[in-house]
Amino acid sequence: MAQSIHETNGEQASPSPVAYFFTIVRLSIVFIILCGMIYPLASTALAQVLMPAQANGSLLKNSDGKVVGSALIGQKFSDQAWFQSRVSSIEYKAEASGSNNYGPSNPDMLQRTKDFIAQWKLDNPGIPASQLPVDLVTNSGSGLDPHITPAAALVQIPRISQLTGIPADTLQALVTKQTEGRDLGLFGEKRVNVLKLNLALSELTRGTL
Known about the structure:
This protein is mainly α. The chain has helices spanning 2-8, 17-50, 52-55, 107-123, 150-154, 157-164, 168-178, 194-205, and strands at 59-61, 67-70, 147-148, 179-180, 191-193. The protein starts with a helix and ends with a helix.
């Protein structure tokens, strides 16, 4: 009688804790294989086929075939004969991406700017500090920005022309050629990738980075 009543009410016995455990284990194994192995391998293979350069870090090579950096990460050029990047408070260390978020009245920020301007006057005696584009004296949000404005590249031409002997109009044409437009013609501003620009400059100077 008890069995018939049980069946009439449509009640069924709940799965045991052991059954729950093995169900969870099986699902975990399935998702580990799908999300931890198949998906990464598939996306990596697809990226290598469709965009291998970007998938491998957008690396740039010099004329000798040596990797000298990435088009995505700025770097410092110690020789004043090269175009200089914007200020980086983290010295372009990719593992330390970020900014100290100094305000315009911060004493350290003001001192850093004064030091940069003083160095600029030494390296570029013919260009007054009043003509300095703001991006050359400011840190980007990540500290890794590989670009400068066309104006920031053009203002360095007198120094580079004097140090390399390359005519100023030739350098200006080089900057114009390396200037990237707005994304989709609408977003962002015109910009120059400093490493790409210096690689193009190395072809004129027959030097290597």
